[in-house]
Amino acid sequence: MEQGYGKNTESTRPATPGEQIILPISELPAEENVDFLETSFFRVDKSRKLPTPSEVRSKVVHNRSQTRRPDPVWFAEDKLVVKWGEYVTIAEGQVYWMIQNRLKEIPAPEIYGWRTEGNQVFLYLECIIGLQLEEKYNELSHEDKLEICGQIKMAKVALGRLRQEPDGKFLGSIGRQPLLDVICEDDNNLAGPFITIAAFHDWLNNRVLRRFPDPEAMIPLRKILPDNASIVFSHGDLHPKNILLSPTKLSKIVAIVDWHQSGWYPSYWERCKAEWGNLGDWASKYLPEALDSSYSEHSDELYNAFCMYTQLLGVL
C-alpha cells in the first residue's frame, strides 16, 4: 500500500539562495511505495491514481519489459513518464524529491511517487519536453554554449550548498546507500558507503588489483588520488544526453535528468566523469566554464589517473 506525503515540513522547506542545506537522512522518504500528494499530479484531485506497475508493463512494446534495463514508459495524457526496472532505485527518487523540496533552482522533473514490485522500482516523473544537448550541440553558437554552461554552473553551485550531517560523513548515495556510479559497479562487492575518501580510493585500487595483481605498479597511480578532497553531492553523469534544452530556445536548459549515479563523491569526481568519454570542445573548452568551482584539485595528472582506473577496471 502506498504512503501519502502531504505538505512539506519545516526541515524540508525550500532553502533561500546561498543558504547551506543540511538534510537529515531520516527526512528522506524511504517507503517502498509512496505518493507525493503536494505535487502537481495530485494538486487538483488527491484521489487521482498513478498507473500501477502492471499498467506500466502493459504499454511496453516488443517485450522490452523482460530486459533488465527497459525503456521508460510515457503516459502522454497525464504528462507522465515512468522510469522503471531492476536497475532503477529509490535512491534516485529520493534525489528528485530533495531537489523539488530544497533545491528548486535546479531544473529537474517533478517526482510524483514511486512503487516497488519484486526487484523492480517504478519512478513516476513529470514528462518534460526537451531536446538533448548531445543532439543539438552542433547547432548551437558559442554564445549559446556559454549560456548553457552558466546554467550548469548554477545547478552545480546549488548542489554544493547541500551538506551532510556533521556527525555522519560518508561517500554513498543520498540515503547512505552504496554508490551507483557505473565505474563502481561490482557484482562481488557493494560500493560503500565509505566513511572516508581514502577508504573509497583504496576500494577502487583493490578492485584493480583483483584484475591485475601487481601492487607495486599501482602505488604511483594510487598516490595521485587526493585523499584530502572534500565530499560533495554530485550528479555523476553530466553527459550532454542528460541535459535537455528548450525546443523554442536552445540555449535554455529545461531539465537535468538521469540522477541514477548521483551521490556523495570526492569533489574532483563530477568533472572527471563529465569529461570522461566526452571528446571535442565540449570537454576541453566549455566544461571548465561550467564546473570549475567544483574542481579545485583539477590537474591533467589527476584526470589521467582517473581515466587509467576506468580502463583497468574495464569500464567503457
From TrEMBL:
> Which is one Pfam family of this protein?
APH
Q: Where is the Aminoglycoside phosphotransferase domain?
A: 105-266
Please, which domain of life does this record's source organism belong to?
Eukaryota
Entry's InterPro entries?
A: AGP_Transferase, Aminoglycoside_PTrfase, Kinase-like_dom_sf
The coiled-coil regions, if any, are: none
Q: What is this protein called?
A: Aminoglycoside phosphotransferase domain-containing protein
